[in-house]
Design a protein that fits this description.
mainly alpha; MetI-like fold
Length: 314
Amino acid sequence: MSAVSTGRRQGRTPSRLASGRIPGDESRRARPKPRHKRPSLLLGVLMTLMVLYCLVPLWWLVVNSTKTMDSLYGSFAFWFSGEFSLFQNIADTFTYQDGIFLRWLTNTLFYVVVGAGGATLLATLAGYGLAKYKFPGRKWVFAIILGAMAIPGTALAVPQFLLFSGLGLTNTPWSVIIPAMVSAFGLYLVWVYARDAIPDELLEAARLDGAGEIRIFFVIALRQLAPALITVLMFAVVATWNNYFLPLIMLSDAQWYPLPVGLAQWSAQSSSIGGQAIPHLVITGSLLTVIPISAAFLYLQRYWQSGLTAGSVK
């Protein structure tokens, strides 16, 4: 027994501590170092072109809004030249034609608040109802929504004009607001988001606690739908603010024009008989038109990002 035990002791491998090797040292040595991916040259070039495509027109707008009408055509388009006339151009823009630019700005804000706000509310209510309530014909409603998304808005402009003309609503703000309140894409987006973002168990628990359907929607569901709601609101605000074709055919009174239609009318004055060319005011008005929508987009984007990360940390 002693010889066997002695052979076993002699056949033992030395411990890792005795051999100077630390446990886990081999794995650390054998672990490959992370490789940094080389930046793609093609991707960098494409991103640079996209940034230039977005910023160059904005830079041109800022630069030329500081020029007078005389220096607008006699200087380099992408750099400042002559007298700095930005504030004078802004004052002239707001006072030209008895200050009609301010009226156009007020009309656009009114269309955005009522039209885009109504579109967001209706899309949220309808999308939530379609996602969380079962009723006959849901598949048909889904097919109709997809079909409405495939139809371009310009194709519906003439039928809408004939419809509102028959109702006597043309040349009124309602001919712009009512079509803006219908958003098939917003409804579809809220529907898809609400289907997975709001658990059915949460709604059943609220019903067992005695909460009504209206309270469940405004207290529980609306908070869960915040990212989708902000996304729909951003798209609706941008679409209503830049809406040009529908107000052009619906409105004949310049007092109801939004900013895009009004600025286009100013730009067309140079080609009309007896019209006055005011390109410096058109450029300055375009700059003033871009600033509010850009500020609104940046402001809403903050809530959109915070809504996406609201439930990521437990």
